[in-house]
Give the backbone structure.
Amino acid sequence: MAGGVSLGLLAGLVVCGLVLLVMSSARIHGWYLLACGFALAAFAGLERFAPDGPLAHWAALALVVWAACRLQFARQLLRLHQLAPRLDKVLLALLAMLAFAALHAGIETRLSPILRVLQALVVASTVVLAAGALVVRRRVRWPAILFCAGAVLLLAGISVAHLPAWSEQSWAPGQANPAQVAVIAELAVLALAAAARLRAERAHEMRAHTLMAAPGIDALTGAANRTGFERRGEEWLRDGRPFSLMLIDLNDFEAVSERHGRAASNAVLAAIAQRLREQVRADDLVARLDGDSDGDRSSFAILLVGNPPRQKLAEMAIRIETAGARPVAHEGRLLAGGELSMGIACHPADGDTLADLFDAAGHALQHCKRKRMGPAYAFAGELAEDAARA
């Protein structure tokens, strides 16, 4: 009776996985569906075949494939290839070991050695995945929390009755092994985690559509666009507020798109915009000046409230340069960060209109880009003073 209930629950989880796959068409839900399907096949085989029978190892093979599909699903659920690439490499090594274990299960007819190897790999992969969940918990909160809960259930069930118990004890069809119950319970919790991630992705898409529809916002980076930049600058000019304008360009950025593709260049732009926002105050404005979502364009601007001394602006420029140079994680790879050049102009010293300030900062930016040595920033006021002395 217990065995029939377990198989019924697994069949229900297969249906749940199919629904998730139809709703999103994402590969991650395909891995979940395969994990549930192979778990169902494995436990149905272990229920039907005697442990010492010639066909029992095929049920164990299905269990190995379940472990591999579960590992692939959890990697993508937690986005470890992007957020924790070092741990992800360890998991890829464990995935390769599972592939060898699957080959071994196809040849070895004794059940006990297969299940012993499988248990060790399942425990190791679960511990590494749980560590990855703790690392990424701030970025994927609920999937990480739910995965950890499922991992606790699985490890507890395996510790109570380890997987090789099927081959070491007398066979009792119709009775569910605690490890089997733990596998089913974890799959149920992982279904909730997959649903939580799908919900988060839908919310992110809605926010992206809102940004695309909002005037003055660049949809790719979430920074202000040129319209928003000009609106804020003109407002400050009308109010007579002193402010500084910093133009920023990513040197040789076109090579990123040529070498890694448009998605990678977009990821770099979004990361640079976020790092710029982290360096400024709440009243300052970060803008991307290239308008649409063309990832081959790489000009940014910052409007800074007030008119601090050049030394303060230079210190900020150095912090921005350092932040921009950090590598950007994208699809399991670390892309080189941006080598930035900056031109700085101040109102009212360097111009009375936004166009004049933009031209002054642009002239300083080009001067900075032409230099082979020296700081990554230049002040329009210093260039004007040098020209006057000359």
